[in-house]
């Protein structure tokens, strides 16, 4: 159906399924029943989400279509739903979109599968639209497609990993770093094929075809959750400095990190309150956003490493012992931040440029994972 415009839609996983919510007014556009713990990742085309389930990576159509026509666009909506297309995976893991490609990693087999993001236009992925290769061993890994045709990919085992390298289009290995123990977390940044990866001794940055180690003062420094922007050379990260010990309480840091990918350095910003891995996002102009335990959304200027605004959004909260239990979830689309509040069953909307809380929508379910798709914004 043709419409005058399309507002962003949120795919919200709950215990028993996924709701598709119109973020302008909270209308539930579709309620898809599905069991299991469901993870949601934008597919990169401004329309589809990849759902990690027991079947693998399932394609979910959020039903928003934008078709350019000369100097303007035409907008259409269709009924959201699972398309039936699935990338089989034993243990579906990370999804990365970059340089017009989407890469998914199967932790259970160590298989990387990639496709041209535009191939999803019809909601179906045929075998000839998929390319795949094997890493040496199954592990919790990640792959980042590059514009050059290469792929940055981790290597390791279920017990240990410390390597990330450039796998060229012909399968040969280019640049490599073996100084990235516990490699986890990735982000891409402004520039031609710029990426960073988290390690437990400081991150590594890939730039100009080489890996560069980010020096840190701590013996143990893990930034396993990283968030980039195509319009910023800075990568926003968590910043842990206490090595985990069996039986000890987990670390709840109050500092975040900012990696400058132009010179492979990092700066920290003290927020005064803790956060978790779902607290992060990036704005349209590269701003950093972090939701902290005190219920505030911190808006950060990465260039100056300073908090520019704080917005009261949710009631104070703490991270659950089980990370799969519902907790506040932060996602961004353009100049807007979307924050779930499981306790209140709300979806909050904050404008980044003004620092204003614009709306708080009622939800009929307790939200867990979320993906927000703006049809006019391609990842």
Which terms would index this structure?
379 residues, four-stranded antiparallel sheet, 0% helix
Structure description:
The protein is mostly beta strands. It has a domain at 1-37 and 278-379: Beta Barrel (Thrombin, subunit H), CATH 2.40.10.480. 0% of the residues lie in helices and 48% in strands. It is built from no helices and 35 strands. It has strands at residues 2-3, 9-14, 17-22, 28-33, 39-42, 48-53, 56-61, 64-69, 72-77, 81-88, 92-98, 101-106, 111-116, 131-134, 143-145, 151-156, 161-167, 173-177, 186-189, 194-197, 204-207, 210-213, 226-227, 234-238, 255-260, 265-270, 280-282, 288-291, 296-301, 306-312, 330-333, 336-341, 346-351, 356-362, 370-373. It has a four-stranded antiparallel β-sheet, with no helix packed on it. The mean pLDDT is 97.
Helix content, binned percent: under 10%
CATH architecture of the domain at 1-37 and 278-379: Beta Barrel
Count of discrete alpha- or pi-helical segments spanning 4 or more residues: 0
In order across it, which strands form the biggest sheet?
A: 4-3-2-35
Please mark out the parts with pLDDT under 50 across 5 or more consecutive residues, or reply none: none
* Count of individual beta strands: 35
List the quaternary state of the chains. single chain
Major sheet size, sense and barrel closure? 4 strands, antiparallel
Query: Whole-Å distance between the termini?
Result: 25 Å
Q: Structural class given helices, strands, pairing?
A: mainly beta
Shape designation = globular
**Radius of gyration, taken over Cα atoms and rounded to an integer in Å:** 20 Å
């Amino acid at each position: 159906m043709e419409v005058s415009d399309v507002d962003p839609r949120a795919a919200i996983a709950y215990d028993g399924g996924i709701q598709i919510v119109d973020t302008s007014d909270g209308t539930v556009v579709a309620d898809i029943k599905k069991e299991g713990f469901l993870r949601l990742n934008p597919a990169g085309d401004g329309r589809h989400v990849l759902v990690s389930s027991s079947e693998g990576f399932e394609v979910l159509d959020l039903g928003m279509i934008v078709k350019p026509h000369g100097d303007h666009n035409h907008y259409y909506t269709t009924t959201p739903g699972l398309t039936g297309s699935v990338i089989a995976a034993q243990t579906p893991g990370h999804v990365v979109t970059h340089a017009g490609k989407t890469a998914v990693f199967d932790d259970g087999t160590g298989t990387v599968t990639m496709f041209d993001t535009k191939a999803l236009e019809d909601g179906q992925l045929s075998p000839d639209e998929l390319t795949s290769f094997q890493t040496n061993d199954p592990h919790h890994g990640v792959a980042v497609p590059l514009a050059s045709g290469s792929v940055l990919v981790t290597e390791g085992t279920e017990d240990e990993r410390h390597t990330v390298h450039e796998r060229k289009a012909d399968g040969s290995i280019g640049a490599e770093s073996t100084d990235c123990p516990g490699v986890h977390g990735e982000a891409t940044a402004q520039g031609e094929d710029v990426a960073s990866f988290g390690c437990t001794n400081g991150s590594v940055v890939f730039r100009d075809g080489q890996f560069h180690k980010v020096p840190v003062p701590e013996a143990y420094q893990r930034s396993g959750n990283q968030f980039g922007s195509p319009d910023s050379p800075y990568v926003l990260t968590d910043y842990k400095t206490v090595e985990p010990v069996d039986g000890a309480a987990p670390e709840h840091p109050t500092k975040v990190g900012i990696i400058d990918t132009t010179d492979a350095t990092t700066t920290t910003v003290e927020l005064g309150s803790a956060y978790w891995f779902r607290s992060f996002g990036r704005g349209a102009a590269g701003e950093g956003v972090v939701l902290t335990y005190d219920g505030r959304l911190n808006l950060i200027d990465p260039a100056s490493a300073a908090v520019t605004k704080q917005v009261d959004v949710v009631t104070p909260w703490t991270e659950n012992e089980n990370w799969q239990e519902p907790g506040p979830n932060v996602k961004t689309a353009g100049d807007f931040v979307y924050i779930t509040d499981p306790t209140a069953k709300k979806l909050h909307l904050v404008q980044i440029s003004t620092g204003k809380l614009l709306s708080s929508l009622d939800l009929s379910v307790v939200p867990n994972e979320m993906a927000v798709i703006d049809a006019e914004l391609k990842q």
